[in-house]
Amino acid sequence: MRHLLGIDDLGRDGIDEVMALTDSFVEVSRRAIPKVPTLRGRTVAWLFYEDSTRTRLSFETAARRLSADTMNFSVGSSSVKKGESLRDTAQTIQAMGVDAIVVRHASAGVPWQLTRWLDCSVVNAGDGWHEHPTQALLDCYTLRHHLGSLEGRHIAIVGDVKHSRVAGSDVRAFAALGAKVTLVAPPTLLPASLAGWPVEVSHDLDAVLPEADVAYVLRMQLERQHEALVPSLREYTRTYGLTVDRARRLRPDALVMHPGPMNRGIEIAAEVAESSQAVIREQVSNGVAVRMAVLFLLLGSGRPDAHATADPVPTEVPLHG
Amino acid sequence: MADPTVAPLLVAGGTVLDADGSRRADVRIGGDGRIAEVGPDLDADGAQVLDATGCLVAPGLVDLHTHLRQPGKEEAETIETGSRCAALGGYTAVVAMPNTTPTMDSAAVIREVQELGRAALCAVVPSGAITVGRAGEQLSPMAELAELGVTIFTDDGTGVQDDRLMRRALEYASGLGVTLAQHCEVTSLSEGSCMHEGEWSSRLGLPGQPAEAEELMVMRDIALARLTGARVHLQHLSTAGSVALVRAAKAEGLPVTAEATTHHFTLTDACVASYDPVFKVHPPLRTDADVAAVRSGLADGTIDAIATDHAPHTTEEKERPFDAAPPGMLGLETALALALTELTGPDADPRLDVAEVLALLSWRPAAIAGIDDRHGGPVVPGRPANLCVVDADATWTVDRERTASRSRNTPYAGRTLRGRVRHTIYEGTPTVIDGDATR
C-alpha cells in the first residue's frame, strides 16, 4: 500500500491487516516508554489546511512513538496565505525530503489530487464531506475490542451524515466488515442519493435504538445553522439527540460512540457521553495505535525510500527561503 | 473581416454538403472572398488549389458559445489564440460570451472586442450582457449595443434571477430584433455546488447542484416567452427535464431555441470520480439518462445547435481543489470530431447522419446568431466563402500539448476521434491548410 486515501483502498483484507498491526501498537503504547525505533530516519509532514486538534496530535504522537521525524506545516502562517498553490506547497514540502504527507483539507478529493503530483505517500486525515479513513479504522478497532466480529452487528449512525467525513468512511468500513448500518437523520442531513450505499435509512431514532448494538452519534455542525437544514437546534435535539431518556431505549450492552468534538446537550447529553456504555475516550486512545499501524504499513521495513527514488526537484517549484 | 482582395482558391475533389444536400463539386473562390463557381471538375486557372479529395466541403461551423477571455484574462486565452482554435476546429464564426473583465455591457468594450476581432482567424461576434455587469439588476444599453451589430445578449455564467427583470429584458429585446440567450440556473438552489447532485456527488462528498436548478429557469423562461412573444435561446442544456420542457414548448409553437455542448453528450458525472477539475463545468456533467436525453434532443430537433462552451483556464487555476477550481473546458478544436464520433458512429443511439451533425454545428447556429447572411449558408456562387473541408473518416488522437489555446484544460486528451478538419476558409482566405493554421 502506497497511500491511504479512502477505506475502499483497503477493503476487508486491508482493514484486517491494520487491525492486526494495531494490536501490536496498543501493546507498545502500554509500555513504560512507549517508543520503538521502527521509523527512525523517516520523515512525516503534516499539511493541515483546516484546524484540527485531536487528529493532528494523534498522528504526531503516533509518528513520534515510531521514532519518525516530523515536520509541521501550519497553513495559517505559511506561503499559502500568500497565494501559493496546493501543488507548489505540497511539492515544496516533498522536496525537503519527506516520506509521507498527512493532509487535511476542507475540499473533498485533495488527497487524491496530491497523489498525482507527489512521489511520497499521502495519508488522508479528512477531506471535505468525503472521508476520514483513520477515524473509521479506529472506530472499527474500538468496536472489535468490545464486540469481537462486526459481522451481523447493527450500527446506527445518527445525525449529520451529509456533511460528515467520518460517516463517509465509517459506512464503508462497517459494511466491509459485515455490519448492518442504519443512518438515522432528517432527509436534509442525508446525502442527496444513497444509491450504492450499503445502508438502511430511518427518521425514527426511538424505533432504531432498541435494535442497535451501537449508537454512533455524529457531531452537529453548528456553523451550518444558517442553511435551514433543521428548524432549530432545540428541535434537532428533541428528534435526533441522544438524550438521557432516549438512551434508556438502548440495550444495556449497546455501545455509544462519538468522533468528537462533542456538542454536549445538542446531539448527545453529557450524562450519556460519560456513561459506562460510552467508549468515546477509548476511540481517542485507540486512534494513536491505529495511526501507528497505518504509518508502519506505509513506511515500515521493506517500504521504498521515497526520497531515494524521487525525481529531482522540478524547476517550476518555487523554494521559499 | 478578411482582406477584400484575396488570392483566388480552388477547393478541388470534394463533396459539397450544405442544407440543400450533397453533390460532388469543386468550389472556386474569387478575389472578392466570395464563392465564384461551384461545379464538377473546375479548372484551377491559376488559383491556389486546396485538395479536398475524400472530404466534405461544408459551410464553416458557427459556435454560439465561446469564451475568448479577452479583455481581462489574456493569460488563459486571447481573441487571437481562441480564434485559431476555432479555425482548427472548422469554425468561421464564434459568438464571444460577455463575461470578460470588464463585462461586455458597454459600447466601448464591444468596440474593443470588434477591433481585436478584425485580426482574428474567424468572425468574432460579440454578445452583449443582458444586465450591467451581469449583476442581474439593471438592463444594459441593448439598443446602443444592437446598433454596433450585437445580435445576442446573455448574462452567461449566471442566469437572470429576477423574474420581472427577465420579462422586461425579453420585451425590450423583442423590439430590437435581437435574441436573448439564457444560462439557466436558479442560484438559490445551486449555490455552493460544484457538480451534479446525485449518486456521484454523494459518493465523492462534493456539494451538488440538482437538475431542478436548471429546469426551473428553463420552465420560467418558456413561460416568459409565451407571455411576451419574444425569442429565447436556452444555453447549454444539460438535463433530461430541460430537453422535455423545450420539446413541449416547441410543440406549442413558442419561439424557443436551445443548444447543448459536446461535453454534455459525451461525458457524465462519473468522470468526476478522479477529482480532476478538468471535468468541472457549468452546468455540471450529468447522468447517463441526461446524456441520452440530450442526444435524443439533438436527433429530433428539440435542441437546435451544438455549442462548445469553450472555456479556457490556466493550468494553475485548474490545479486547485475541485470545489475551488473554475468551471469550464476547451471545446473548439474537438467539437466536430466528438459529434461525428459520438453521434454518427456505429454505436450511436440515436444515430445521426453527417448532414444532421453539420446542421447542428453550422447553419442552425448561424441562423440563431443572426449571422446567416455570411455564415452557414448554402455553398453557392455569390455567398461569402466561409467554408470548412472535413475528412469525416480520418481518425486522430487529441494531444493536450498541441492545442492552439493558451490553456490546456481538455478532458479528451488521449482520446482517438473520427473526423478531422483538413482546411478552413474564412472570407475567402485559408485559415487552416492540411490541418495546420496558416498563421
Automatic annotation (TrEMBL), chain A:
MF terms (GO), sorted A to Z: amino acid binding; aspartate carbamoyltransferase activity
Subunit and partners: Heterododecamer (2C3:3R2) of six catalytic PyrB chains organized as two trimers (C3), and six regulatory PyrI chains organized as three dimers (R2).
Residue sites binding carbamoyl phosphate per the record: R54, T55, R104, H132, Q135, G260, P261
Enzyme nomenclature, EC number: 2.1.3.2
Domain of life from the UniProt record: Bacteria
Cellular component, GO annotation: cytosol
Binding site residues for L-aspartate: K82, R165, R219
Domain Aspartate/ornithine carbamoyltransferase carbamoyl-P binding: residue ranges: 2-144
Secretion signal, residue range per the UniProt entry: none
Purpose: Catalyzes the condensation of carbamoyl phosphate and aspartate to form carbamoyl aspartate and inorganic phosphate, the committed step in the de novo pyrimidine nucleotide biosynthesis pathway.
This protein's name: Aspartate carbamoyltransferase
Pfam families, per the entry: OTCace, OTCace_N
Source organism of the structure: Actinomarinicola tropica
TrEMBL record, chain B:
Record's function text: Catalyzes the reversible cyclization of carbamoyl aspartate to dihydroorotate.
Organism: Actinomarinicola tropica
Keyword Hydrolase: yes
Annotated EC: 3.5.2.3
Pathway recorded for this protein: Pyrimidine metabolism; UMP biosynthesis via de novo pathway; (S)-dihydroorotate from bicarbonate: step 3/3
Protein's UniProt name: Dihydroorotase
InterPro entries on file: DHOase, DHOase/Allantoinase_Hydrolase, DHOase_cat, Dihydroorotase_CS, Metal-dep_hydrolase_composite, Metal_Hydrolase
Principal EC category: hydrolase
